[in-house]
Specification:
The protein has 14 helices and eight strands. The protein has about 375 residues and is mostly helical. Strands 1-2 form a two-stranded antiparallel ribbon. The protein has a two-stranded antiparallel ribbon with strand order 3-4. Strands 5-6 form a two-stranded antiparallel sheet.
Length: about 375
């Protein structure tokens, strides 16, 4: 598959692939809830991301190349710190830490996007990718929302939002890499623009955020469902919807506090998620492909287990259902499945699994901004 947001989905791979019973602490014990990271765990994760960095591969497997790892590591830890700050549980020196993560995204995080060109925004040369710009815009929105911004970050927030509005006014769905357009990749940009519009009282950003969100909803309403890939004219290239794309889009639109997030999360839960052990057992998993479609396993889905349940879709559903009040029971059942399948050892050593851990904790602690 092309390098795109979809390749960012399987990193939560421990969810369904770790051996059952691998957790060091039996379920039902009185051990600390590792879904809420400790100060020490956050420090270890931050030191790894800003120091050695996140390896551009999954699970240390060189055959699973994932060049965008550094951007996602920095961004999702930033999102997590913002969420904890809004909930009153921010660790010490949060403003400095969030700023350091932003600086990392603006420098090291650019690398895989640079071949497609850059443009100057304030003092930074930022890639054109809608995926990259959406992530950075959301990092800046989080800083503004949590009162962690300074004059420099606010100026960049305003300038980047204006550049996105300008680009989207010419072509509403923009590429992630090269000419490849994955509609789900526009969800972070849509959420960032909605937040900029509200936080900075900017009518242009708000209007474009609404327009972009409406386009995603239009695509979701197609008879074939929310497409994986389209071309510059909006024509379908890969029409079959997937659990990962629905979960990702629902989660990001919910971060932007947009009601349309429910369109995607509801479609995900109704069409892709089940209780494999039966309705009486509190364990959930989600498919990559629609029921009745025998799709192949790839970098987006991660391993497809018995019944077609997908690592990528199940993992991202944690975030989407957490951010959807109507689906909180699904959120808890997905967390239960993660625990029983052995997520604990990974969370106990976040510096060993920085990308996977940052994404998991983001999903387990998400809240609308």
């Amino acid at each position: 598959m092309p390098r795109s947001l979809l390749r960012a989905l399987p990193p939560l791979l421990a969810l369904l692939t770790a051996s059952p019973g691998a957790a060091e602490t039996p379920s039902g014990s009185s051990a600390p809830d590792l879904n809420v990271p400790s100060v020490q765990a956050l420090q270890a994760l931050e030191q790894r991301i800003l120091g050695r960095g996140c390896e551009p591969q999954l699970l240390g497997d060189a055959s699973r190349r994932f060049s965008e790892a550094q951007l996602l590591c920095a961004a999702h830890l930033s999102f997590l710190l913002v969420q904890l700050s809004l909930d009153g549980g921010a660790p010490p020196e949060t403003p400095r830490r969030v700023k350091a993560l932003l600086d990392n995204a603006l420098t090291k995080g650019r690398a895989p996007f640079l071949p497609d060109g850059t443009a100057r925004v304030e003092k930074h040369h930022l890639p054109h990718s809608v995926l990259y710009r959406g992530y950075v815009l959301l990092m800046l929105a989080g800083m503004e929302r949590a009162g962690l911004a300074d004059a420099e970050s606010t100026a960049l927030f305003d300038a980047l939002a204006a550049r996105l509005v300008e680009a989207l006014s010419k072509q509403l769905l923009l590429p992630s890499f090269g000419k490849s357009i994955w509609p789900c990749d526009s969800a972070p940009a849509a959420a960032g623009l909605l937040l900029h519009g509200r936080l900075r009282d900017n009518a242009e950003s708000l209007a474009m955020g609404e327009r972009l969100t409406a386009r995603l909803v239009e695509l979701a309403a197609l008879p074939s469902g929310f497409p994986t890939k389209v071309n510059a004219k909006g024509r379908l290239v890969e029409p079959t919807p997937r659990g990962t794309t629905l979960a990702w889009t629902g989660a990001f639109l919910a971060m932007g506090s947009h009601a349309s997030a429910a369109t995607f999360t509801t479609a995900l839960v109704k069409g892709y998620c089940d209780h494999p052990g039966g309705e009486l057992l509190p364990f959930a998993a989600c498919r990559e492909w629609p029921r009745g479609v025998n799709g192949r396993e790839d970098a987006a889905s991660g391993p497809l287990l018995h019944g077609g349940y997908s690592v990528g879709a199940s993992a991202l559903a944690i975030a989407a259902t957490r951010l959807s009040p109507a689906h909180r029971s699904w959120h808890q059942d997905l967390l239960n499945a993660a625990r029983e399948m052995g997520i604990r050892p990974m969370l106990e050593k976040p510096h060993m699994h920085p990308l996977e851990t940052a994404l998991y904790w983001w999903g387990a602690n998400g809240r609308p901004w």
